[in-house]
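To the wet lab folks,

You asked to see what we're planning to order before we commit. Fair enough. Below is the target structure as tokens, and below that is the sequence we designed to fit it. If anything looks off to you, flag it before the synthesis order goes out.
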């Protein structure tokens, strides 16, 4: 669901819910999975974890990545939203920015989503308990992972409908990296929801590539475009 059809954002005033896709949203094409899911990114401290989460979200069919950014203008939102580590996924997964977490989650609820936090907690549901974790049949969901060090705050937890977590079976670490835990849960949701697997050739999945010279989208294994993607992955 695209609300911004321009290739560049020139607004002087802030617009909540602005959509950002590197290269602009004009002509943007995306296959929609059903039921949809969003990934909310809030209080993630590492500068490259947004990009890594964006890449993970895109691999499992995320509708949009929702972020909290309190910059005062739309231009500054774009400039300050870094996607290091996305490896080109920021060309395919829209980022929608909000001033507060409350506004972000209100948007998700308007899309019919349950808010599901990703957190280790006594009340959390193991991610493999599909019906309890994701609904039966599966519902649209906005997943909210916790901060790398502190996890979800009490305020964040109170804003969720339920929590899911990844059980551990060894004693080597107290928790997984936020991107690793999120990847496991998004993969489980996509499988349970019956998402169609992306086509692949050899050891790589196909990624639609926008040819700016022709103004068209094409599809090719990611490795053919890896150098270009890495070259531009540092900004939107």
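Sequence we intend to order:
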């Amino acid at each position: 669901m695209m609300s911004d059809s321009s290739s560049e954002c020139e607004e002087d005033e802030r617009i909540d819910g602005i959509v950002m896709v590197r290269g602009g949203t004009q002509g943007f094409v995306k296959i929609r999975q059903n039921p949809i899911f969003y990934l909310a990114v809030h209080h993630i401290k590492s500068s490259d974890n947004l990009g890594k989460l964006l890449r993970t979200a895109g691999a499992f069919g995320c509708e949009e990545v929702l972020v909290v950014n309190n910059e005062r203008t739309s231009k500054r939102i774009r400039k300050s939203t870094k996607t290091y580590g996305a490896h080109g996924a920021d060309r395919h997964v829209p980022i929608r920015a909000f001033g507060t977490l409350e506004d972000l989650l209100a948007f998700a609820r308007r899309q019919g989503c349950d808010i599901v936090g990703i957190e280790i907690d006594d009340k959390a549901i193991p991610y493999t308990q599909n019906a309890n974790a994701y609904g039966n049949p599966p519902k649209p969901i906005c997943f909210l992972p916790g901060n790398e060090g502190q996890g979800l705050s009490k305020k964040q937890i109170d804003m969720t409908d339920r929590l899911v977590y990844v059980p551990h079976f060894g004693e080597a670490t107290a928790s997984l990296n936020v991107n690793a835990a999120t990847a496991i849960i998004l993969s489980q949701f996509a499988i349970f929801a019956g998402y169609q697997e992306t086509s692949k050739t050899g050891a790589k999945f196909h990624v639609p590539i926008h040819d700016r010279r022709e103004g068209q989208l094409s599809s090719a294994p990611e490795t053919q475009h890896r150098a270009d993607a890495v070259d531009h992955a540092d900004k939107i």
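Structural context that might help your review: The chain has seven helices and eleven strands. Residues 184 and 218 are 29 Å apart (CA to CA).

Thanks,
Computational group
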